[in-house]
Known about the structure:
Layout: H1 6-10, E1 15-16, E2 19-20, E3 23-26, E4 32-34, E5 56-58, E6 63-66, H2 76-100, H3 108-130, H4 137-161, H5 166-186, H6 194-221, H7 231-262, H8 268-296
Antiparallel strand pairs: 1-2, 3-4, 5-6
Helix pairs in contact: 2-4, 2-8, 3-4, 4-8, 5-7, 5-8, 6-7, 7-8
Amino acid sequence: MRSSNPVFSRRGFSRDNGYAGFNTAPQAGGTAVGTQGGPYAQPQAGNPYAQNPYAQQDLQYGAPPQAPATTGRMTLDDVILRTGTTLGTLIVTAALAWALLPVDDANISRSYGIAIGAGLIGMVLALVQSFKRKATPALILAYAAFEGVFLGVVSSVVDNRIASGAAMQAVLGTMAVFAAVLVAYKAGWIRVNRRFVGFVMAAALGFIMLMAINLLFAVFGGGDGLGFRSGPMGILFGVIGILLGACFLALDFKQVEDGLAYGAPREEAWLAAFGLTLTLVWIYMEFLRLISILNSSD
């Protein structure tokens, strides 16, 4: 199963012969079915990786693939620890930026300039990691640090100049979405299947394209562009953005679940942490934007 998260889309937790691909969830009886040739296609005859994408083929002797060794495999504790480390780095730098980069009238331009620079660096680091074949912990933590600076200043601006308490409300909203999606996913209320993935991918593509068009109109035409980020339309698109973030979380949970089932190597836990952090940042920013719109329209 492929996720819409750029990290998981690039490498994922499913591979065929060392090449990123699609896989369905393990079937009843413990057999994991891999696919090639497109999403959800049936495994090709003679494909030695059809049973487990992490099985290793003995190329020298042509021996059948063996199950991955039990040592060095990713565990749920690995994912939790590395996700906590990545999010902790982001939260610490956000708190420092909030405290050390004031947003009063005398300093807001400087603080905002630093925040934009940090945000751009964080975006570049995220793209670099997304296209790397292996996780680089230092790169992931550096992304979290710069992203934290950006979020800290933006949150301070919204909280101090637009809506008091907005940052805490956005944090609580993000936590609520995470918990709700996790419960719904584990309870089987959310089924990550082909139709679900297709819907999320199409919705995400349309959402991003509309936001890009709105930004272009705002930059070259001034004002709020097409109005997708202000007023009633802004509220509607804010809710849609949060719902898309919830869908991304479900896809990410599926990827982690498949990684555990297939015996992904331990370093893949850093990619899980990176992907989950990207999704949580998305949800937080959508909540913050929605709260800003609601308060500015009062």
